[in-house]
Amino acid sequence: MATTIDTQFIVTEYGNIYEKNGQNLDRIKRALLQSAVTEKFATHKRIDDDVYKMANDTFRSVLQPFRHSFEPIGGVDFFPNKIELQHIKVDVCLNPDAIIDSWLGFLEGPNVDRKQWPITKYIVEVYLKQQIDYDREMYAIYKGVRDDDGTTPSSCMDGIKQKLIEGSTGNNAINVISGIGALDETTFFDQVEAFSKKISPVYQNQPIIICVPQNYKRAYLEGKRANGWYWLNGPEDINSSVDFTKQVVMGLPAMNGTSDMFAFVKGNLLWLTRKDKFNFDLQKSNRDVNILADWREGIGFGCNKMVWATSETVAVQSANPETGEDQSANPETGEDQSTNPETGEDQSTNPETGEGQGE
Q: I need a surface site. Which of 143, 207, 236, 289 has the fewest CB within 10 A?
């Protein structure tokens, strides 16, 4: 049943007759709709397969004191890392005749083929293209969890958060950073610096994108201004870089509504689609027009060791599967066990390499 077009309020206000009074598409005004942002920070790859298979390698030490005997040590460990492309579709049923006896009648076409009418072109080129970007950004690319039986944008693919949670355990885990606490706008500048300092020193001069909800990026900029450490002519002089590094704080609309924070080396976030670009298939069904589209896409990371996330971001995986308690906390005192109580050092980090020991 065609339900795409609702002209009820137009007909109530303007009547159920068409008046040729110079109206056109320019008179259809709409509020801004969130465009695609997150995918712009990913490396886009078009592939032929439904699964993009990779391997992450880890080197073992080879240096040792000299002795005449041959004592081989060292080696390379390879771990599988894959990103699955998931099948997504759009199904819309359009009843072009809904606009005929109304102020919107200018969108009727001069010919009998309703697929060629201006209203059909408007639905495809304006509504669907913008709504797809909105649904992907706000519900799927970060917050999505694939459910083959689902009917919502959030059920169409596994988003970045799901990949962070899945990647937070196992032999090839991402770096989980503890001790940052729940994000707080009033102290967020300090939280970013604390997060940054827990990234291995070997990456401190690498371009890293720290991703947060948009309100927290603003809080970071406000924190810079409030500290008064810079000569500023105005707010336009404030940038989102992290001092003494090549890191930058980026606010993603896809993360709005969360208090998550994660980071990755630039180029390590991969957005994958099939080489065959999708297009809209318009099919007539009596006086209706069915609009169909389907494609495959997936998102994930190339190398898990070049990804960092707060323990709060991946908290689902930090809970004891039997009790539901957070295993990073001492069950008796509630204190974070990732910090050495005598030295204050982060015990989740290898002191020689700076990498997370839980990896």
A: 236
Q: Tell me the DSSP string of 120-131.
A: HHHIIIIIIHHH
Q: Is 288 helix (H, G, I), strand (E, B) or coil?
A: strand
Helix, strand, coil shares, percent, the chain, to 5: 30, 25, 45
Q: What is the pLDDT of residues 105-127, one digit of tens each?
A: 999 988 889 999 999 999 999 99
The helix-helix angle for 188-197 and 214-227 (nearest 10°) equals 100
pTM (2 d.p.): 0.83
* Residues whose CB is less than 8 angstroms from the CB of residue 41 and which lie 6 or more positions away in sequence, other chains included: 209, 211, 250, 252, 269
Asked whether the beta carbons of 106 and 20 are under 8 A apart, the reply is yes
**What is the full DSSP assignment across 204-234?**
TTS-EEEEE-HHHHHHHHHHHHHHT-S--SS
